[in-house]
Amino acid sequence: MTTEAPTAQIVRSEDRRHWWDGAIDSRQSFPATGNFDLARAAHGLLLVHNEDTVAPGEGFDRHHHRAMEIVTWVLDGRLRHEDSVGNTGVLRPGVIQRMSAGSGVLHSERNDNGYTSRRPLRVVQMWIPPSVDDTEPSYEERDVSDALAGGELIVVASGLSRDADRTAVTLGNRDAALHIARPSAGRSITVPDAPFVHVFVARGDATMGGVELRQGDAVRLTGGGADRITATAPSEILIWEMHSAAE
């Protein structure tokens, strides 16, 4: 039996797919807009990883989702969420949100700052499939600001049994976890060891395996290997740990 050596693919910020409609500027690590076969371009379980800048007062009108775990993380500004199950919330930096679309849900997402505020919203939205289809739609949000203050890598969303007592919100996929860190310059964190890992520099600069990473850059790891990533400026780093792949 042979085992493939671990591989790392660097995806530079400027190489992401770009979609813009005048109000929403979307930088997509995987092609999302108009793509009806998300699994084909996925890395592990990660189907969608969009960094969206939304103009004041604008956003996504009510639309439908089903059979999807949707995780939202605000970098700057405030996002207003409303859905057909009755959940409402205003997300700000430091608050992780998980929406399990299950058998089907309608929701809207908008920049909560009004048209005259001149304050854009910058948000990362990530999609993975559920382990079980057609469950009841559900919603969770949790402020993890205090946990991130120390600069360590924190589990913020997970469906792994290992994380049952420490995750902020619980994913409906038993093979995935999202970790976030806000390291200061010079601080290193250990990347989880898993068959599929996605590292995203949401803010700041870092180095990993001798490669310089800037804001918006990503690394797709396949085949395991516990790498270290070192911040070279105050940074915010999002890391998906995945133990299976989308089908």
Strand content: over 45%
For this structure, the quaternary state is single chain
Q: Name the CATH superfamily assignment.
A: Jelly Rolls
As for the number of domains, it is: 1
Shape: globular
CA radius of gyration is 17 Å
Largest sheet: 7 strands, mixed
In the predicted model, the low-confidence regions spanning at least 5 consecutive residues are none
Supply the CATH class.
Answer: Mainly Beta
User: In CATH terms, what is the architecture?
Assistant: Sandwich
Mean pLDDT across residues:
95
What is the gist of this entry?
This protein is mainly beta. It has one helix and 22 strands.
What does this entry look like structurally?
This protein has 247 residues and is mostly beta strands. The chain has one domain (7-242): Sandwich (Jelly Rolls). The chain has one helix and 22 strands. The strands form four sheets. Strands 1-20-17-22-15-13-14 form a seven-stranded mixed β-sheet, with no helix packed on it. It has a seven-stranded antiparallel β-sheet with strand order 2-3-4-11-6-9-12, with no helix packed on it. It has a four-stranded antiparallel β-sheet with strand order 5-10-7-8, with no helix packed on it. The longest helix is centred in the middle third of the chain and has 4 residues, at 145-148. The model has no long low-confidence stretch (mean pLDDT 95).
